[in-house]
UniProtKB/TrEMBL annotation:
The keyword Ribonucleoprotein applies. Belongs to the universal ribosomal protein uL16 family. It comes from Candidatus Zambryskibacteria bacterium RIFCSPLOWO2_01_FULL_35_19. GO terms for biological process: translation. The keyword Acetylation does not apply. This is 50S ribosomal protein L16. NCBIfam families: rplP_bact (TIGR01164). Binds 23S rRNA and is also seen to make contacts with the A and possibly P site tRNAs. Part of the 50S ribosomal subunit. GO terms for molecular function: rRNA binding; structural constituent of ribosome; tRNA binding. One of its GO terms (cellular component) is cytosolic large ribosomal subunit.
Amino acid sequence: MLFPKKVKHRKWQTMRKNPKKVGSATRGVRVSFGSHGLKAMAPARITANQIESARKAINKCVGKTGRVWIRIFPDMPFTKKPAEVKMGKGKGDLEGYCAPVLAGQVMFEVDGVATPAIAIEALRKGGTKMPIKTKIISRI
């Protein structure tokens, strides 16, 4: 699983945003490294477990010759209170790390496969592991 080596603050504030005012990404919207990419169609927080399961699914389909780039990194800590605990008594314990993703951001890229159909199928399988709708794009 991915997680940062060191963080300045152990717990972050939630960073809530109005869903009507959340914009789309301006950086990381094009395929830069590979030939095909997996793009997020909605804003979300992608946990480290979800990134890892998508990476495994993509790598299994791509094979040894293919190369996979992960364009997002989970550096934002999130907390959770235990089950059946009353309200109050402070913030919960650290549960894990997540990557905030905006709509339009490229999350994974693939290159070095025999045919484009293999890359598209690999990214489709990786997209099923994500909690949001995704789109497969190719380099122009």
